[in-house]
Amino acid sequence: MEVIIKQDALSGSRAAARVVARLVHEKPNAVLGLATGSTPLLLYKELIRMHNEEGLDFSRVTTFNLDEYIGLPADHEQSYRRFMNENLFNLINIKMENTHVPDGMADDVPAACAAYEQAIADAGGIDLQVLGIGSDGHVGFNEPTSSFTSRTRIKTLTRQTVSDNARFFGGDESKVPHHCITMGIGTIMEARMNLMLAFGENKALAVASTVEGPVASIMPASILQHHPAAKLFIDEEAASELKLISYYRWVYDGKPDWQHDA
Known about the structure:
The chain has eight helices and ten strands. It is of the alpha/beta class.
């Protein structure tokens, strides 16, 4: 796992965006895995800027989102489909039919999950997966103790996740859905690259456990230690609990020029 420490969320997001942009330039029909929530917003804003000002072309790109709440229609103000449309898809030249978000209103959820997995396979697999991390170490909605071999499926959110996400529902936890569809950890680990973003002091303990702790299902993100191409973009606050912080800086600063895509 490559740990890239930037001064703040903006500089970290811009560095991450350069990795995504490089992939799209090199492989115009790239398959991107995308995340929602507040963490990737600056990344998406930078990709939109690159599209508008530098001609970054998404016309052949395919996307698969990590998750969606069960019971929220696509036009609900807190659905992840609407989030992606408003914060990225409607603002770049991607074809809407090439964007995929799990169907939270599916009549047959297990069948919808199996179809989502098949669609990823049919697209050739995910080239780069964007990830955030929860304060309890969850990735996507793979809560603590999720199986490392899990596939896209229905999950029940923990009380901590419901509490963390209440801010998007006016602070009212009773309005937060308790179930979701999420890509599994096994699905995430099959992406050719995983790119995780984590910013702020409240993510520091989860980041330290992910990078330097044991690989354990109680900290789902820790499985990224076993991924062959995982990049973790964090700010100074999120890096504050790392024991080997000086080493990560040394490694990054000493990279040869041809490796400096971030």
